[in-house]
Amino acid sequence: MSSKKSGGKSNVGKAGGALPGPTSAKEDATAKPAAAKKKSSLPAFGFAADLLKGRKTPAAEAPGEPSAAKPEREKPQARKDAGPAGAAARTSDTDPERVFTFADSLAAGHVEEQAKKIRRETWVTLTLANETFALPVSPVREILRISSITRVPHAPYPIRGVTNLRGRVIPVLDLRIRLELPEGDLTRTSRIIVVSSRGRLLGLLVDAVHQVVHLDVDLIQPPPEDVMTVQSDYISGVYHVERGLILLLNVDRALVIRDAPEPGAALLGGTPAARPSEGAVP
């Protein structure tokens, strides 16, 4: 005898087990928001650019789904730029020590600049009998205009006389006579170059002083052996320029006099007693 009190289908299966009943509309409404909320949840960590592009991060990936490999950061490529000009190019924004790298590149450029300066020497150019000579700037103390040169009888050859340097009397050597060039007169361009040699101050009389120049050491050539003698060992080198040659003088050797003129030979256009003193340049 079957019972029909419930008026509906029985939830009892053939095996006597309970079967799942139909889901109510209320349960569906509560389940959907929960699923949507879970789908839009953000992971606990990750890059903002990856999140905005919709990439899956390890926290948002489904279980069992292989994670996408993160792209490796590109290592900064080594650049061959040298000197301070390429310092900014050698540093990379991805280098964590870029500040130190930039500082090191500037220091390296400074060392290169100093190395280049060491290979250059400073000289003072001058004129003697229309020829260009040069003295190293290191022994030069100052350059004087001609005020007066007082003759000293029996002064050693090739001393022109003495002059007053702020209360100090110094000898003046005529560089023309020392280099066995023709004698010249004092002019408005004549100068006395005060040099220091072996702890002493001496004046070198020259026709004119031009300028201070920086010569490349690698371009200085030794004087030709065919024209060099013991008397001309004061020439330390030859330097080529556009206008000709510059003869480089060694101050210490130029002040060493090995041979004197024969007795009775006229010096400076007359004997020392004939012109006891020379006044200022007209």
3D structure, described in words:
The chain is an alpha+beta fold and 282 residues long. Among the domains are: 84-118; 121-259 and 268-278, OB fold (Dihydrolipoamide Acetyltransferase, E2P). The chain has helices at residues 25-39, 48-52, 87-90, 98-118, 175-178, 251-254, and strands at residues 120-128, 131-136, 140-145, 149-150, 159-165, 168-174, 191-197, 200-206, 208-216, 235-241, 244-249, 277-278. The strands form three sheets. The protein has a five-stranded mixed β-sheet with strand order 9-1-2-11-10. Strands 3-7-8-6-5 form a five-stranded mixed β-sheet. A hairpin with a 2-residue loop joins strand 1 and strand 2 (131-136). The radius of gyration is 48 Å and the shape is elongated. Residues 1-16 and 263-276 have low confidence and may be disordered.
Principal-axis shape equals elongated
Strand coverage percent: 25-35%
Instruction: Characterize the largest beta sheet: strand count, sense, and whether it forms a barrel.
Output: 5 strands, mixed
- In the sheet with the most strands, the strands line up as 9-1-2-11-10
Which CATH architecture of the domain at 121-259 and 268-278 is right? Beta Barrel
Q: Provide the residue-averaged pLDDT.
A: 74
Q: Secondary-structure element order, as H and E?
A: HHHHEEEEEEHEEEEEHE
SSE class: alpha+beta
CATH homologous superfamily identity of the domain at 121-259 and 268-278: CheA-289, Domain 4
CATH fold type of the domain at 121-259 and 268-278: OB fold (Dihydrolipoamide Acetyltransferase, E2P)
CATH class of the domain at 121-259 and 268-278: Mainly Beta
Number of helices: 6
Given as residue ranges, the uncertain stretches (5+ residues, pLDDT < 50) are 1-16, 263-276
How much helicity do the residues have?
Answer: 10-25%
Rg calculated over all Cα atoms = 48 Å
DSSP summary, beta strand count: 12
N- to C-terminal distance: 159 Å
